[in-house]
Write a structure and sequence with these properties.
single chain; about 240 residues; alpha/beta; Rossmann fold; Arc Repressor Mutant, subunit A; 2 domains; six-stranded parallel beta sheet; two-stranded antiparallel sheet; 10 helices; about 45% helix
């Protein structure tokens, strides 16, 4: 059965209850690139204990699917149009606290990991992970544990206040006021010299701000900065 909601294509393929083992882990894939979803579905189909019951290409549709399919776990990308993964995780955990979420993303920056965990994710997996790590992350999270992709756990130091609450900020909140202004100007197509003149600072200082904000956001080129700004509605996509 193929269903359409808000012009976003997603699939629901439910196995009849009489053929499905009760112990199987039902999973929804949330990823805006069809070829990546197909790859994940193909990999997960190898594991007899995992059952992919639905797919969505943005966070808003994912929330609807979780409500209708009641999966065990959601495998969630972060950067998507319509509604990003961070917002979707927060809303899913608010409405359906028993549903587990594992982030699967290319973002390696510490801020993304922290904010994902704060939003309610129980796992954080990088897209260069192996099949073994993919299934391990799902099984560990379903056991009630937190799973971080190899290489992230060692460098992630989560600060705790006296109350024991995780001190985590979103990547956007990690930027200084000046870095946010520079980001917006970059996304508007301004070059370093123009930004320097506008802010009455040196080109070298602009370059430093630019380097810092890209590192904090785990962005690697101007196109990625522009896409981030559009997603945050800092600039119009027609600029």
């Amino acid at each position: 059965m193929r269903t359409y909601l808000h012009k976003s294509i997603f699939k629901i393929e439910k196995t009849p209850d009489k053929y499905r083992a009760k112990s199987r882990i039902s999973v929804i894939l949330v990823e805006d690139h069809a070829i990546v979803r197909e790859g994940l579905r193909s990999l997960l189909s190898i594991d007899p204990d995992i059952d992919v019951v639905g797919e969505a290409d943005n966070g808003r549709v994912a929330i609807q699917l979780v409500g209708s399919l009641k999966p065990s776990l959601v495998l969630m990308d972060l950067s998507m149009p319509g509604m990003n993964g961070m917002d979707a995780i927060r809303e899913i955990k608010k409405r359906y606290p028993d549903v587990k979420v594992v982030v699967i993303t290319a973002h390696k920056a510490e801020e993304y990991v922290r904010f994902s965990l704060q939003a309610g994710a129980s796992g954080y997996l990088l897209k260069d992970a192996t099949y073994a790590e993919l299934t391990t992350s799902i099984n560990k999270v379903m056991e009630g544990k937190v799973y971080l992709s190899q290489g992230l756990a060692d460098k992630l130091v989560i600060g705790h206040s006296d109350s024991g609450v995780v001190d985590a900020r979103s990547p956007w909140e990690a930027l200084t006021h000046r870095e946010r202004i520079v980001l917006k100007l970059i996304a508007e197509g301004q070059h370093n010299k123009n930004i320097a003149n506008y802010l009455c600072i040196s080109v070298k200082t602009v370059e430093k701000h630019r380097s810092n904000l890209m590192k904090k956001l785990d962005l690697h080129n101007t196109a990625a900065v522009t896409a981030f700004a559009i997603e945050r509605q800092l600039v119009s996509p027609w600029i």
